[in-house]
Design brief:
The chain is mainly alpha-helical. It contains 4 helices and no strands.
Amino acid sequence: MMNIEKEVISNEEFDLICEYIKLRNESNISQSELERKVGIARSTIARMEKNMHSMSIGNFVKLLDALGYKLEIIKKEE
């Protein structure tokens, strides 16, 4: 049996992934459907959603685009 070690991700990355999962669920789009739309393997999407894999920003943007969203940079309030 293979031992998979969970990646350590930042709180910000965790929050982004959680928000993406919420949007995907609200859109009723499966991981397999996203795989067909954007060409990212369903296993890669699943690993990212389980916080076992840090996805490239380019692929993350593709997933958001397929859901009808975009990523923006907003200055933090101080």
